[in-house]
Amino acid sequence: MVETYSLNDLLVAVRRGSRAESVAILNHFIENEEPLESDWIKCAALALRIGEVDKAKQAADLYRAVMPQTLRHLINYCGVYAEAGDLNRVLKLVEPQIKKDIQDPNLFHLAGTVAAQLGHLDRAKYYLMHALRKAPQSGITWFTISSITDFKKYPELLDKLEQAFATIPAADEKNLQQFHYSLGKAYADVGRFEDSYNAYTQGAAIMQGASRYSIENDKAFIADLIANHSAQALTQLPQAQIGYNRAVALLGLPRSGTTLLGQMLAKHSKIKGAAETNAIGHATMHLRNENFSDFPGFIAQHGDAQGAIDHIADVYAHVLNQQFSGNNLVVDKTIQLSRHFGIWAQAFPQGRAVYIKRAPADVAWSCFKSNFRSRADWSWDARDIAAYMQHEEQLMNHWLAVMGDRILTVSYEDLCHEPERVLRDVCAHIGLAYEPQMLHFYKDNGPVFTSSVGQVHEPIHQKRIGLAANYPEFLAAYDQCRIS
Question: What is the pLDDT of residue 300?
């Protein structure tokens, strides 16, 4: 009897954390070319959710083959490929439609966003401005263009942004939130820091209403993580035997310089790229919170401890190899990789890590003003930010104590002031010779999907050191929370 599945079976398997079952269902759908029609796009989204990039593309291709060749279906199709990181393919598909004089703002927004991520900033601005002419109330388009624009050079653009903002209904909270962050960036560019702070505060307040972050729960999780991952406990854990040696862990708080350092390293001839791969998340999707905080205890109860860690390493390698082909190193700068680092270190016993630190006040402010692409519930309130940063510092101090020389600590400020010296230290740590082209990372660099999209396409400078001083009201709230 032939096994049959529904899309709901796939959704349940993904939510349950059963990766093997999810992959089996995906394979069944794709190999049998099930008549999923419009559901192929949902199938692709679920494939991306578990790190199966190739299967997501196959599902998207089947969607495109069976659905009418409308503009909406093309945008859906391109959305999958954009999420999968194949940005050049998206532009090749979208730009011919634009040349046909199709004046759809969604098409222009997609082209502009992808061009920005690829570093084609002039082309991105051209497309995004076209999108705004057709849809001036689109907060996400304003936010995208604000991330790559210096409003000091284009004061007339700020006028248009304010005019558009004045027409947004109060009930349209998601759109308003995007406008608040856009205005915050624009006001900062022109030196109106009080207005900037007020705009960011209003945007964060909208997001804070949906926050699920608990300081006490996070504190308890970190305490358990540290207590259960002592040096002795780690020595008793099995180490993966698959011999995968492509991964380099880049640790650090969001907005601490991970994207900048990652892009610089990605210019090395022996490094394929740098990205928030989330490979460790996909490899450990079967684990629950208590399994992470007490991974040694979980492994001790496992029937095949060696097989368990080998499985994690194998899935991680599979996910990383889909995103970055070849044999060169890959810099993994996944957010919260620090919280998985005990597992990562056992999965890749020869792997090296770099920890980048930045002045806490600058990190705190930069996190507060960032409209993060992925969830960061702790980033919308000074008290939550202060607590989260303290928890991360405690955890990293622990890893530094028990991991010895596997982790190299560098300073963002040093990287800005003495980039060659810092890069030489990092290269030596990960076993590579320094290459001068890393200093020219901003020229033809790889795609950027983080809040730093507009910044890493500039030569290195010191302009962002000490920026938090422009926001004394935020710093006062942050300092009070940090002390208490």
Answer: 87
